[in-house]
Amino acid sequence: PSYLLVFDFDETIINENSDDSILRVAPGQVLPEHLRQTFQEGFYNQYMQRVLAYLGDQGVKMSDFKTVYENIPLSPGMAELFQFLSKHQELFEVILISDANMFGIESSLRAAGVFSIFHKVFSNPASFDKRGYLTLGPYHSHKCLDCPANMCKRKILTQYLEERAKEEVEFQKVFYVGDGANDFCPSVTLTRDDVAFPRKGYPMHCMIQEMEKKQPGAFQATVVPWESAVEVAQHLQEILKK
Fold it and tell me: What is the reported pTM?
């Protein structure tokens, strides 16, 4: 493959935050206030562990979660982008780095018929325990001060590129499609050859603009904001023509 394409999941591939989506199976579709109060900035993974334990206590089962994940809509234009990628699989190595969870991502991508496009998926481990509760773990630990305690996407991307280089796979360009603040961190490591596709008006886009304003030229990659993923597909098409 000539190119590495990195996707985020929540509000990038899918048009919602999957952690919010699963509240559809909570009693009355809301969490109790005392549980919501336990959320701390930077410790979202631990908070979601408590949310999942609560949902387990309420009798929410694997099939309930699966149904929710399978029915989350794709973001605008995402189906067209996946069609484009499946036509050019020999050129693009596609990976996904997400702070959601493996069970939800896999359920969602399989339902959309696009799971096979992904070379690798990096996300928080999730499985069902003996009680049938969905349990969640942290992905790894890291020293990055800008990212949540359980995941730094920059560390994952950097290690992935190093590993692929050892296997003698060098990419001409890296493309990064994302929306959140935790997508900004890895996008800063992109080079002049690479392209960042931030979702227009979302935190990643705002942070890139902010950086450009404060330190012109510091953000190296070409920036192509998108509202529909068709715009991403069009940009990739242009690059293939060159």
Answer: 0.96
